[in-house]
Design brief:
homodimer, alpha/beta, Rossmann fold, 53% helix, globular
Chain lengths: 293, 293
């Protein structure tokens, strides 16, 4: 197990506050300093006792840190990197928890000083809830935490991966572009689709909309859960992984048109064929140990 | 609470076997006769002790029934109605549990004798599992069970609704076309979308497909659950509610194109605007008491 003398977490939403909780509960550093741009969130963090110190400004938060975690929407990474850059100490490791990696590397790398080591990462974990009160110490347990090596020294990378493992996560290295492609299909596109269909229901005439809510069947209910995820975080994801998302969306649209045509022309065998194949994928995810139920 | 002297259930999948369980556990009839076209399913029903009698032919199953429940895929309704018609006793109430109501009324009504009372219905309840072993007695508890009056006598309808209430369901009457429209958006379209996106992932090149399964994030995992629902049941749903599904699909496609364009043109405000509105729908479903969590 690796630990750091001092860790700073910037951003105390679901991810940042969950990380703070597991760091404290497993004693993964000597001193945990927290910061959030929102004063109300900082007050909540104090009330919840999430860290050793809740700093009032970002410079103070990172000044003595050996590891800085930027747990903020990917659209905010560039500015935060610029803000913290002058205060970082020699040899500090910087990471982020963003769901897009190409954009974060592009935004953050130029801002950081040479004496900082940037190792981008992404915990594949989350719920539809946001804010410091929604975090919990076991959020990362048995979930993948992807690390993008990004040219860092092996020693730095191994220490960092050891720290992530200590949170309970399964740590894997991955190429940046490949990460963005995998996440586009497993996470970004499903969220886009869920947001769309719930929006479609929202725009129905009034009576029908009310009954959609009353008689909400299980398919739609699941979509509303996904579509209640943090709007700013997800706006930023689509703005920053647009290429991979648009590519997957095009494939999805082709496949949907095929089914649409099969419905219009009453070609039941085409539907049944696909519906049978998709069952198999579920089984394989279960076999990979990545189902909660 | 209304009950019937004798009830026959045709089709012992998730819905039929759950209904059998709740009928037995609450003693909602004197004699419960079960039938399934599949001999293996009948054997399982015997082993599970689901009814008083598991009949070997459908004529024998319905001959003395005061209520016949057709819990079968909607594409099988027409044939089963023809098969049971000659054996139905005077005044018997026939219902079905299909997810499309216009097609079932069209398929079943002409086949039934005048001395039978057809009251179509639809329990808005289910899981992704199928088969007699997947049913459970509380499946309908606090879920809506929609009744289409379909010109039946008030007395017959009230007795039937009283019986459905006794299963634990919340019973509501609804117009047939309206039902099919509401279900198209709350259930049928979400299933179609989930099947599509899981299919899209299935067709990815091999390495990527494996990693999609390994790193399956929460959005995609939910979709795979929906997309592991019974293929024949769902094929029939799309074949039999094609008009309403295609109408909703068109709206969905328009809305998705709007978001796709917003991503391509980096219009983050449009995305954030929608993502904020969709949160509200979730809250209203929760307020309506239709969330499990």
């Amino acid at each position: 197990m690796s630990r750091y003398p001092e860790i700073a977490i910037i951003g105390l939403g679901l991810i940042g506050s969950s990380l703070a909780r597991v760091i404290k509960s497993k004693s993964l550093c000597d001193r945990l300093v927290l910061f959030d741009a929102d004063v109300e969130v900082r007050e909540k963090a104090v009330a919840l006792g999430l860290g050793d110190v809740v700093a009032d400004d970002i410079a103070q938060a990172v000044a003595a840190a050996d590891l800085v975690v930027m747990a903020i929407p990917v659209g905010a990474m560039a500015n935060v990197a610029v803000e913290i850059a002058p205060y970082l100490k020699q040899g500090v490791v910087i990471t982020d928890t963003g769901s897009t990696k190409g954009s974060v590397i592009k935004d953050v790398s130029p801002a950081l000083p040479d004496h900082a080591v940037f190792i981008p990462s992404h915990p594949i974990a989350g719920t539809e809830y946001s804010g410091p009160e929604s975090g919990f110490a076991t959020l990362f347990k048995d979930r993948y935490w992807i690390v993008i090596p990004n040219g860092a020294d092996d020693a730095d990378t191994e220490t960092f991966k050891g720290f992530l493992s200590a949170t309970g996560a399964i740590v894997e290295s991955m190429d940046c572009d490949y990460h963005d492609k995998v996440l586009a299909i497993t996470s970004h596109l499903p969220h886009l689709i869920a947001y769309t269909i719930v929006g479609t229901a929202f725009d129905l005439e009034n009576d029908l909309q009310n009954d959609v809510i009353r008689f909400s069947a299980s398919g739609f209910r699941d979509f509303t859960r996904i579509a209640s995820s943090d709007p700013v975080m997800w706006r930023d994801v689509f703005m920053n992984n647009s290429e991979a998302v648009l590519e997957m969306l095009q494939r999805f649209n082709e496949d949907l048109s095929y089914l649409q045509r099969a419905i219009r022309w009453q070609e039941g065998d085409k539907l049944e064929g696909l519906f049978t194949r998709t069952r198999d994928i579920r089984k394989r995810i279960k076999d990979a140990g990545q189902l909660d139920d």
